[in-house]
Amino acid sequence: MGTSEPIRLGLVGLGRAGWGMHCPELTGKEDKFQIIAACDVIKVRRDAMAKKYGCKTYANLERLITDPNVELVDIATRSPDHYAHAVMALEAGKYVFLEKPMTLTYAEAKRLKKLAERSDGALYIRHNRRCEPAFCHIREIITSGILGDEFEIKLRRVGYSRRDDWQTVIDCGGGQLLNWGPHIIDHALRLLESPVKEMWSDLKRIAAVGDAEDHLKIVLKGENGRVVDLEISGGAAIGQPEYVIWGTRGGLTAQGNTITLRYLDPRQKLPRRKAKRSTPGYDGFGTPEKLNWIEKTIPVKPKTVFNIWDELYRAIRKGGTFPITLDEAVAVMEIISAAKKGTPFERS
């Protein structure tokens, strides 16, 4: 700890996440991370890594993990393998960066957390959507207080697709709960800002051709009374804003790189009002009142942004605090397991 040398990284799984996401994200970060090894069962993928990065390649995970030069094992394998692969790396005393979902079940997540706490290595969960600019900007708006007390939040990630890849198959760890679910549930728990008091969920298969759910709705109510209503769907033909937030003095919607705000002018002092029992007139409901609304559309541009790889480097090399705690990641898996329980989509 304290050295400024790049972290020597071994990448496990060279598919859509490993090759398609992790590798491009590491471009330009060679001062922090050096890919020195890679592992995949498919030879053409290993060859592509060796050609591009000049790294060692392994067909066998155990050989990569026992490579003494590998400090950080970056796991981007299929979801059902995450638990076993993380266990192997932690037992070898390695740092582990684990792609979401952390595991397939809450029980596995709790066991993995306990193992990480007694390991010589450390476990970091890749909930990279925590860094999403819109999410960060919206949290800044909430903190500013201009919306008043937020009482309901709607989170949406919807579209329509007749998917047929492995992420539609239950035995492969498929389903939207384990795909988009960890990201949006993590957002929900952060925006709830309270322990969960009540939960309701519904899972369906609409358009995907596998046997896993591709449409889900979860409603969480916090002990603070706030409600977060989230939907993730691959069967929604008409979209909705990604974020809708209602507060006692205003609200917002957000889609893509745009946030639309409508809130009461903070300079306007609202006189106290008292409900009347008398019969109202013909010209309206209650006493007329002029409310000064501020309405504007702004680009997504948070004051503070962060990158999950930079935070990982800071945690490992500088002793910093990684922004996603293991308790937070385990809490996400608790919601996922609760939503699946007793449904046809629960993995046997």
Topology of this protein?
Elements: E1 7-12, H1 18-26, E2 33-39, H2 43-53, E3 56-58, H3 61-65, E4 72-75, H4 82-91, E5 95-99, H5 106-118, E6 122-126, H6 133-144, E7 150-158, H7 181-192, E8 196-204, E9 215-222, E10 227-233, E11 243-247, E12 250-255, E13 258-264, E14 293-299, H8 308-317, H9 326-340
Parallel strand pairs: 1-2, 1-4, 2-3, 4-5, 5-6, 7-10
Antiparallel strand pairs: 7-11, 8-9, 9-10, 11-12, 12-13, 13-14
What does it look like?
With 348 residues, this protein is α/β, with parallel strands linked by helices. The chain contains nine helices and 14 strands. The chain has helices spanning 18-26, 43-53, 61-65, 82-91, 106-118, 133-144, 181-192, 308-317, 326-340; strands at 7-12, 33-39, 56-58, 72-75, 95-99, 122-126, 150-158, 196-204, 215-222, 227-233, 243-247, 250-255, 258-264, 293-299. The strands form two sheets. It has an eight-stranded mixed sheet with strand order 8-9-10-7-11-12-13-14, covered by helices on one side. The chain has a six-stranded parallel sheet with strand order 3-2-1-4-5-6, with helices on both faces. It is elongated. The relative contact order is 0.15. The mean pLDDT is 96.
